Amino acid sequence: MAIPKDLMYHKFRAYGFLKNLRFFDPFLILFFRETGLTFLEIGTLFSIREIATNVLEIPTGIVADSYGRRRSMLASFSSYLLSFALFYLFPHFGIYALAMLLFAFGEAFRSGTHKALILEYLHIKGIEGQKVEYYGHTRAASQFGSAIAALIAAVLVFHTGSYRIVFLASIAPYLLELLLMLSYPKELDGILVGLRGGGMKEIARQIRSTAVNSFHMLRKGILLRGLLSSASFDALFKSTKDYLQPVLQSLALALPVLLSLSKNRRVAIVVGIIYFFIYLGTSYAASHAGMIQQRVHSLTGAANMIYVVGIILLAAGGIGVLTHLYILSIIGFLGLYLLQNARRPLLVGYLADLIPRQMMATGLSVESQLRTLLIAALAPMIGLMADRLGIGAAITIIALMGALAFPLVRIHEIGRR
């Protein structure tokens, strides 16, 4: 059965495209290094972001289910805009920490909420069985946005000779996101708690009920394993993926071409081109998530296989840096990007079969909370190891840790305990 490509389908894809026009993504670590931060300080900033997100995840999930998912999204993008402005205007570690807090606020209000909007829409349309393929299509638009963003960011850095401009440029697409959220229909908010009369008491009752339900989610063995599987793989990916940037920097400076250009301009060309092709690949992988599931005849089998191969590729990324075989490292990271974007829709579909629909935003926020806890622990650890042992050794050690964790996060077919 073909996916209905109606107006909301295109709006969901537009959301993903605009959301990923984060022009700072391909240059984030290079931006921080340009301002003089160590890898440990960078990891600390990432940890601040994830801890703040972790603290806000459950409350914001409840707010989305209680007050309205669209309002939650509006609050999210407003917070992002303030964060980008601070990064651009005030180059100081303390201000960066505040900007990370605002960024975390945006992440917490957005994380899980838009997926809940999509799943609510699929329920209304009676096509919930297509959730993996549908979500894969929207994620593909997101990754295509990242590909375009990489090229635009490269042009901006090349033109200005500095990485700082990418935060100013990121404001424009997020203003468009605010307008897009205003156009979403009210019925996607789901069942809301009344705000009149005894509304506040009802809200408090629902918050307590949701908190209890969240606790019960974590007590269910198969659901807990699914949440941990999704969170752990994403945490490994997100805590290491940006280290591709200094690898590309080393490659760009080692190439015997473009020698007449400044260091940042040479790096901008290489980073922009590589990230463009990476995100084109991840867009393709996300859009074919449903096909991957069909070919292996098992959603859980595909997810488990991707986890193992992903760990191998992460290790290749680290070994490539250790041996100065930067091409091997780039191939490892490229493969990891592809697999993460193929695996994510599979896990969303898997978790959607285990979490009650009316609790979807909260359930996905629980998954996101677990992920951010893991990233908060891994980010400064990787930064410290990168400062003392080098980037290659840090990534290789993290890959080994991921391999040792696999028996604990291997998911099972639904119905099996």
By DSSP, the count of extended strands is: 0
**Silhouette:** globular
Supply Rg: 21 Å
Gap between N and C termini: 32 Å
Task: Describe what you observe in this structure.
By secondary structure, the chain is mainly alpha-helical. It has a single domain (7-409), classed as Growth Hormone, Chain: A (Up-down Bundle), CATH 1.20.1250.20. The protein has helices spanning 7-19, 28-34, 39-67, 69-89, 93-110, 113-125, 131-160, 165-169, 171-182, 199-219, 221-240, 244-254, 263-287, 289-296, 299-322, 326-352, 360-389, 391-409. The longest helix is centred in the middle third of the chain and has 30 residues, at 131-160. The radius of gyration is 21 Å and the shape is globular. The two termini are 32 Å apart. The relative contact order is 0.16.
